[in-house]
Amino acid sequence: MCGVSGGADSMALVVLAVAAGCEVTAVHVDHGLRTGSETEADRVRSVAERLGAAFRAETVVVETGPNLEARARSARHAVLGPDAALGHTTDDRAETMIVNLLRGAGPDGLASIRPGFRHPILSLRRSDTERVCEIEGIEPFFDPSNADPLFVRNRIRHEVLPLLADIAGRDLVPILDRQADVFASIADYLKSEAAELDPTDTRALREVPDVVARVALREWLRTGTEERHPPDAATIDRVMAVVRGDVIATELGGNRRVERTAGKLRIVTTPKG
Questions:
Q1: Which residues, listed in sequence order, are joined to residue 119 by a DSSP beta bridge?
Q2: I want to staple 84 with a disulfide (CB 3.0 to 4.6 A). Which of 38, 80, 154, 197 is the partner?
Q3: 81 and 163 in contact (C-beta within 8 Å)?
Q4: Which fold has domain 2-154?
Q5: Region(s) of the chain under CATH 3.40.50.620
């Protein structure tokens, strides 16, 4: 199954999956955020049928408001499930790395999008997917929201990366891609070390290197929540203050707080309002 928006990346994903002999179902998710968005599904259906792939259309409801991009993505991923192939490219990986850097992410976030079955064309550039569509005579859909400077990712794509490339005098996407691999190795090592710890034991957390303690706390705090992104560096800083005994509790947001009692940490849900 392939998630297909109708853009060049996801259209190329279907082309390449069919060419590789895979049994492909192209799934288009309509968020209903644009007038006439239903025509995008028709275009994906037409291409899928021409290529010999199955097609399925899904519709989700995403209310307008703050964090629209993230909420739309979460709704889309919920429909597609964890096994759908997605059309992310090396350019997406570089952009995501910078987005996560701005969020204060640790090594796991800076590893960005990980290679694997879910991202089979991650080694391709955006120009490659556009060329695939051109060769196949496919006219991909351009989502106007991808040019909207309201979204952080768009400013990184259209402003930050071109500026950095101009300053460096070279294309930085391959460099960021390699650095993401380095951060992935670091993150995996730190996770293996952190897995040996009881993240609620403040003494154990103080006896290991600070970076290992922070990873253990990050994994613990995201367990049992619906948050797609792990806690940011500022949140971990506050919890580390509780670990050291500088304070006895700290707020996490979302009506949750971490408290310390008799050398143990616990997460407490606080009443709303």
A1: 116
A2: 80
A3: no
A4: Rossmann fold (3.40.50)
A5: 2-154
